[in-house]
Amino acid sequence: MNSPIAGSTATEIADSVRDLRERGQLRAGDALPPVRTLAEHLGVNRNTVAAAYRQLTTAGLVQTLGRGGTRIADPAPLAQEGFAAGTVLRDVGTGNPDPTLIPDPTAALPAVMGRPVLYGEPVIDAALAEWSQDWLAADLAPREFRLTITSGAVDAVERLLAQALTQGDAVALEDPCWLAGIQTARLGGYRTVPVPIDAEGMTVAGLTAALAQGVRAVVCTPRAQNPTGASLSDRRAADLRAVLADHPYVLVIEDDHFSLLSQQPFHSIVGPGHRRFALVRSVSKFLGPDMCLAVTASDPQTAERLALRLSPGTTWVSHLLQRLTHALLVDDDARAQITAAGVHYAQRAQAFAQLLRVQGLDAAAGDGLNLWVAVPASARSVSEQLMRRGWLARTGDEFRLEATDSHHLRLTVHDLDDADARRLAADLAAAVAVAA
User: Fold this and answer.
1) Which of 36, 192, 308, 394 is disulfide-compatible with 410, CB 3.0–4.6 A?
2) What CATH number has the domain bearing residue 322?
3) Do 263 and 392 belong together in one domain?
4) What confidence tens digit (pLDDT) does each residue in 346-396 have?
């Protein structure tokens, strides 16, 4: 065999393939040598080559195609949240909040202008820090924690994983999982271990199995899980804490993205003796995605590592943005609007779930901006039928960690008026009837 791939360890072999791909010597669709053949060529154990291929698969650089072998992947982008580009269809898969329910920052803007912040000054605005301390202490006390401000929840999770993991390390993600979580793990080169979700959130058996596989971090959504809308029950959270009690140094990241909008209580899976933890709360769902700010409370060691990645004057979050966030969070009218928005999202989801049940479809409204709808047929086939009726929906396979033909759709329906909601429910039932 004449192969340019080199290396004696899994990491060296994976890096060699990366280099060849970057130099254009390996292109999308090119086949890599079979594991046994490459192992013999390099004089290494077959498990070493298999581990290298797993690293490359996790990073999205190669695809394993069964009898088709392992091939260089086409660097097509992963699915992203938001509106679909260039479509005339009614998009009910956006995952967006309703812009009419986001507080208008215009009146608060003049108050946040002030003395410019210079290099070397504290990276967290004092007023926001004080407010956030009380906000998160209510759910973290009596654990000691420190605050960090990042450019949104995705930025926080990416930085948290980067300070704890190295390429090839295993991270437990919910399955189905939020889209940015899948992309963050793939771009970081981490090995993802799926943990199933049911109506009460992350399953105990799933987390137990993931820990047995040596995961070094766990990312959990305590409420309004995206895409399912599931929230942890008190009982489930307690059971998960018991499982994690034997793994106190596994980093547990709780992404409480819906926080102030949620209609469910917060239940943490972090026990009092857990040593590595982070609670992340973004403002994007209630103050708008463009605010790009999240507050993270983490154990002191994790916070110290995060601080090294948020240098004053270079990668900090703008103090103007921090001041504006604080001004809105302490404004009575803005908080009342946020509360009303949370109630609106819940009511619209419940109303649409009832419309689906009338049509003979099994649907239960969870928490959050979306509805996770089970369909008794291939979700892709149902989606195609919906497109013929003028609707664009997201299929559940986009949110899965492993390729699968899902039987779920994720729908964003809170901005539909009553007539459109009835039409979508009827069209969905008709689409299922054709696809089944």
Assistant:
1) 394
2) 3.40.640.10
3) no
4) 999 999 999 999 999 988 899 999 999 999 999 999 999 999 999 999 999
